[in-house]
Amino acid sequence: MQLIIAFVAGLLMSIGIAVSMMIDPAKVLAFLDLSGNWDPSLALVMAAALAVYSVGFRLVRGKPAPLLAEKFQLPTATKLDKPILIGAAVFGLGWGLVGYCPGPALAALSSGSFATLSFVLAMVVGWYLARKWPLPH
Q1: For the segment 64-111, what is each residue's pLDDT rounded down to a tens digit?
Q2: Is the per-residue pLDDT at 137 higher than 80?
Q3: Are the beta carbons of 28 and 99 closer than 8 angstroms?
Q4: How would you write the chain as a 3-class SS string?
Q5: What is the pTM of this model?
Q6: With contact defined as beta carbons under 8 Å apart, do 78 and 68 qualify?
Q7: What are phi and psi of 67, to 5 degrees?
């Protein structure tokens, strides 16, 4: 059942990313271009996502465990350290340079674009290298 729910959640996320056009790097770059021809429409997508998350968070807050798991899997780190700051900077640079972040890039693979495939392959190599040689805290 967990696998089915994970699949449905991923499918809904992918559909939302596609419908909102977050799989179009030009749309994302237009959103990030505050000094040029700025497209604020993705801010509405983010606001809608936060609204949905807020409702979901309120529904599960105070519950002892999720419906299909023994306990919640919550992060335990509470401080900003070197790896999180470097990771955030690299993520932001990649998003700003090419207009993709991991979720939309995976959703956009169905387009068959060589650029998208190249980005996802580079992303996988980056994950591998980061796991093989983690930064010291």
Answers
A1: 998 888 888 888 888 898 888 998 998 898 888 888 888 889 888 888
A2: no
A3: yes
A4: CHHHHHHHHHHHHHHHHHHCCCCCHHHHHHHHCCCCCCCCHHHHHHHHHHHHHHHHHHHHCCCCCCCCCCCCCCCCCCCCCHHHHHHHHHHHHHHHHHCCCHHHHHHHHHHCCHHHHHHHHHHHHHHHHHHHCCCCC
A5: 0.71
A6: no
A7: -60, -40
Please give the radius of gyration of the chain, using alpha carbons only, rounded to the nearest integer: 17
Between the alpha carbon of residue 80 and those of residues 83, 87, 96, the distances in Å are: 8, 11, 22
SS3 for 51?
helix
AA letter at 5: I
Task: Read off the DSSP letter of residue 64.
Answer: S
Residue whose tokens read 């002892």 = 64
